[in-house]
Recover the amino acids of this structure.
């Protein structure tokens, strides 16, 4: 047990050193977890004296104290710490952390880059954004100070800070933009260790700030590296980030697939496997059948360890790439799904509905969700498609009417449950119209395939990029739609051509 007082009964000279060391002892279990009242009282005493003198701390001590106490909060479920750093429900005591944030504010401009990144990491660990009386937030001040000191940031500082901002969902486009510009302009990527590099792209993708130039340069950098230096988690995080950000990079994905296949798949965590396969499915590139097949044994052996998100992501990924795996998707999977039937969120239920369509109506595998779960999945799937149409979708539908076509708006298909922006009959076939802003990816590919196979409807996707500039020109929009539908359109040019031919 760590000594809470010196041999003479005095407190350690540096409270920050105590709080910095304490999490390490917890991690190595060198501290008795049993709630001994005397020990607990000593901890409370040290915490009280720490908080009483916190305004006298310098930048190093206050950073170490905040980071150390935040790290302690990772050790949830320890009775020793209940009532000390977290409440009876093992939630961090935000009032205490708010006081620590207030104490750091007067000296925050003196923090160096390591302190700024560590303090942002600490508050991200406890998922808390302190907001001050003037309406500003601690993270806003951290961003402001960081922008003034960007030139001094190391690769570790950058990856830690950007991951913290992304994890805690603090939006700061200026900071993300300036950091990306710095990393690219100064050619800093070569200084990033593999884990730092994966954290960087994960942060940008998670925050919705995916810089095209940064992702392009990261891909180039990785093509020059030996991927054996990247751990399984780093590889899965990188492909997840590219897929999440919608950044297509087939060459990089091929290299990572080869590296993943060459490894022992048991090295990957369940989350790593789920993220990796989801990313390759979402990416929308050429299907790597070997990659998916190579992970089947590893998934089978860990089927009972998968959480809801991992189960749904893996099932959805195999559905998208259309790679049958009868040894995986069998009664054991159904049992695992049923054990968590009431724990799935809406997104996961939607994924399972699409998997069930694949298993039953595409593969005719004989394996299906039980009726109760099927019903919940269908309800989530149909409800999710009830979003109001966008302005550009309304304009597309109006122009289809103006052309003279008979169509059904917001049509729900009875067999699959999919909803289409418009359903019409053209050239002796049923055609669906979809307006999409994501571009080609696993979601659109899956919808195109399942609607065609199950409902017999061919979908024509109209992407926002191709429609930009046409929404204010009725003639050009109608011409474009007719071309996509394979229809002759009675434009002035076409009529003049007929007259000339006559």
């Amino acid at each position: 047990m760590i000594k809470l007082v010196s041999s003479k009964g005095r407190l350690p000279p540096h409270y920050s050193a105590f709080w910095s060391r304490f999490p390490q002892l917890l991690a190595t279990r060198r501290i008795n977890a049993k709630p001994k009242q005397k020990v607990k009282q000593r901890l409370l005493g040290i915490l009280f004296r720490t908080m009483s003198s916190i305004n006298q701390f310098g930048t190093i001590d206050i950073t170490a104290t905040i980071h150390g106490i935040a790290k302690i909060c990772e050790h949830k479920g320890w009775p020793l710490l209940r009532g000390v750093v977290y409440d009876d429900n093992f939630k961090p005591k935000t009032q205490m952390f708010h006081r620590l944030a207030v104490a750091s504010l007067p000296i925050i401009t003196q923090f160096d880059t390591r302190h700024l990144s560590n303090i942002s990491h600490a508050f991200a660990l406890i998922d808390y954004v302190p907001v001050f009386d003037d309406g500003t937030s601690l993270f806003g001040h951290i961003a402001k100070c960081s922008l003034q000191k960007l030139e001094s940031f190391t690769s570790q500082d950058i990856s830690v800070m950007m991951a913290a901002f992304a994890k805690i969902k603090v939006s700061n486009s200026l900071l993300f933009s300036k950091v990306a510009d710095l990393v690219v302009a100064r050619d800093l990527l070569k200084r990033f260790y593999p884990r730092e590099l994966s954290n960087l792209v994960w942060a940008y993708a998670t925050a919705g700030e995916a810089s095209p130039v940064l992702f392009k340069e990261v891909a180039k950098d990785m093509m020059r590296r030996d991927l054996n230096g990247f751990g399984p988690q780093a590889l899965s995080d990188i492909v997840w980030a590219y897929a999440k950000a919608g950044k297509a990079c087939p060459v990089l994905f091929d290299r990572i697939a080869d590296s993943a296949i060459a490894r022992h798949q048991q090295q990957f965590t369940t989350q790593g496997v789920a993220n990796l396969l989801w990313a390759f499915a979402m990416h929308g590139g050429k299907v790597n059948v070997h990659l998916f097949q190579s992970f089947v044994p590893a998934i089978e052996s860990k089927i009972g360890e998968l959480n809801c998100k991992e189960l749904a992501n893996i099932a959805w990924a195999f559905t998208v790439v259309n790679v049958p795996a009868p040894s995986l998707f069998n009664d054991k999977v159904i049992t695992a799904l049923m054990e968590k039937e009431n724990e799935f969120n809406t997104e996961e239920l939607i994924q399972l509905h699409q998997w069930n369509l694949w298993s039953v109506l595409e593969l005719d595998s004989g394996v299906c969700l039980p009726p109760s779960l099927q019903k919940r999945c269908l309800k989530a799937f149909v409800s999710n498609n009830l979003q109001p149409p966008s302005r550009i979708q309304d304009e597309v539908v109006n122009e289809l009417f103006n052309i003279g076509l008979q169509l059904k708006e917001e049509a729900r298909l009875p067999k699959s449950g999919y909803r289409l922006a418009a359903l019409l009959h053209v050239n002796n076939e049923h055609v669906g119209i979809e307006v999409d802003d994501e571009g080609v990816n696993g979601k659109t590919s899956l919808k195109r395939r399942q609607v065609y196979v199950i409902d017999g409807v061919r979908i024509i996707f109209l992407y926002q990029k191709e429609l930009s500039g046409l929404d204010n020109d009725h003639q050009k929009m109608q011409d474009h739609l007719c071309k996509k539908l394979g229809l002759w359109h009675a434009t002035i040019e076409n009529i003049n051509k007929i007259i000339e031919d006559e």
